[in-house]
Amino acid sequence: MAQWDRLGQLPAAFKQQLLELYDRDSLPMDVRHYLAVWIENQEWLRAARDHDLAVVLLQVLLENLDIQHSRFVQEESFLLQHNIRRYKQNFQRYLDEPCDLARTILWFLEKENEILMSADLTEQVQFLQVEPEIMETSSKQDLERKMAGLRNEMQCMEHTMICLEEQQDEFDFKYQTHKMEAVGDEAVKNDQIKVLQGLVNRLDECRKSTLSDLNKLLDRTEDLVDILVKKELVEWQRRQQKTCIGAPDDVCLDQLEKWFTCVAVCLFQVREFLSKLEELVGKVSYENDPVKAQKPALQRRADTVLKDLLKSSFVVETQPSMPQGKGPLVLRTNVQFSVKTRLLVKFPELNHSMKVVVSMERETPHIKGYRRFNVLGTITKALNMVESQSGGMVADFRHLNLKEQKSGGSGKGVSDIPLSVTEELHVICFDTVFELKGLSVGLQASSLPVVIISNSSQQQSAWASILWFNMLSQDTKDLMFFANSPAATWPQFGEMLSWQFLSATKRGLNDAQLEMIAHRLFGNQMNYDTCTVAWSKFSKENTPDTFWVWFDGILVMVKTFLEDLWREGLIMGFVSKGKEKSLLKKKQSGTFLLRFSESVIGGITFSWVETTGAGQLNVKTVQPFTKDDLIQIPFHEIIRNFQIFEPGNIPENPLLYLYPNIPKDKAFGKYYSEKSGDDSPYIRYIKTKLMFVSKETKRQSSSSGFPNGTLSP
């Protein structure tokens, strides 16, 4: 709906504001009404600065008024004919300064928008009072409204500055004329002085009003900078931490960039307004000039707010990562890694002009044995809009690597805190300088803490450290985190574990699977929410089979060999032996389920229920299959070809229904190899390892040398 139509539907109180707005000759309401669509579709903001465009729009406006006049002649609307003719004559005074007309119309449109915004806000407040739970305005919508309000205030201030300059020019012209004229009549001279004094008084009031408006404008920008820096940016940084460890959060920076840029542009305009005030004072000043008294403080305030915004606008968009690593933030010496920085204040004129330099942290913890590194490779790049798909101002470093410095001894004040290599945290720093319109500000960004390893065997432990830190800490400068690491609550811990599967396979852990893991960690509890997991329990215990080693072994196996089956929900996975038996004994003979081994790292097994000769239900389990098996034959082919051999009987597959009651071939059929029997590409493995003798405990081989596991009741 057009803006003018919306205004026409406002409640009486806001229509009164509209009538008061148009109670002046600058833009008659009749013209606004009859040319509403055309007026709202023109680029008045650009015309206010572009003389040629302003000339064109003025000419078209006059032509539209002629068209309206002709229409009223045909309709014999004598009064409207007269009014339109008079309006056209009034607009012709802008022929010498068409940009003034553009600024005038722009000002009216902005004031209309303010009325609409006030009406919308009032309606929302009233609705909130009736339905508070339904009409909760999101912080994003609220921020958008504040941004729109800031832009409107800036445009109004622009108009105010123009009016102030015109007022000052009028006074200056009359004052200079008065000085040059030799007026002998004292009465006339006194009258002229009174007029000049009146102009000075008006100018003084206008300057005071302008300064007050600038203070209010800075109040608004400070509020927005506070929201952006202390809320929106902090929330984004936390989301980024979580996405680094698998959370499915949105970390796109495009919206933040729009907000940061909007506020920065407005603050630069404030600095221009202040420069304009200084220029005006240089031409005309007087005793107790408010600009001279207040302008320095306003300048300092504007510069401080702008610098605070700029210093927070330089961020690490993509955290350091190796091409073949387990995840981001684990780096290996002499192995290439990449990282991307971004400036959220986007000024196209700075494209390729701001150089970013990479270095390691300046201050390192005073810990005995704490390693130090140098960054090598292409360590300097310019921020540019080419390397970003969204056109953001980025510096994408793709060819960096780390080299350990030679040890320089312990030094004074060194602590003896025992940290392993994979508990050492390091930070990569990025420096640049923002220079624009006479302002120069040094900017620095830093990565999330990284763990630096020297060989691939340390990756698993290093990734555990990254998971733990980013799950629990929001202090991204805390390099001593593992000197006294806090425990994780079960809700935090369970969510992080689910993210690992979600990011690796697109399917997380359900409540039942998480409950089995909680039971493994804490035993039987009524409620696990108050339970906690210590760092030492997760990864640091002096045993080769810590919780993380067990869990990660399963995760790697699923990602490498079982991703499709897991994603489709065919693998129950995390279920205890006791729970498994209770589930299967309620089902028909031949029902089976797939679960991860609790004792074999990276092992998966299946159990099935069968009816004994005495009519009893018995649950049997096969020894876990590991990567040694799965690199030879897919797990679905194991399920398809698994057989039990009883002396004197034909071998048969006891696996008939996937829990709860899905026919095996319906569940796994689409994954089967086209060839079966002796033509199967896996026939050698099938004959040597998938033939079980029911009364024996080993998977039997028809040719010796492949005993591989047990069949147990």
From TrEMBL:
Q: Where is this protein found?
A: Cytoplasm; Nucleus
Family under the similarity heading: Belongs to the transcription factor STAT family.
Which keywords belong to this entry?
Activator, Coiled coil, Cytoplasm, DNA-binding, Nucleus, Phosphoprotein, SH2 domain, Transcription, Transcription regulation
Can you name this protein?
Signal transducer and activator of transcription
The answer, when asked if Kinase is one of the entry's keywords, is: no
- Subcellular location, principal: cytoplasm
This protein's species is: Scophthalmus maximus
> PROSITE patterns, alphabetically?
SH2
Gene Ontology molecular function: any one = DNA binding
SUPFAM superfamilies reported for this sequence: p53-like transcription factors, SH2 domain, STAT, Transcription factor STAT-4 N-domain
GO cellular component terms?
cytoplasm; nucleus
Q: Where does the SH2 domain start and stop, copy by copy?
A: 566-672
Record-level GO BP terms: signal transduction
Q: Name one Pfam family in it.
A: STAT_linker
Q: Which residues form a coiled coil?
A: 140-167
Keyword Nucleus listed? The answer is yes
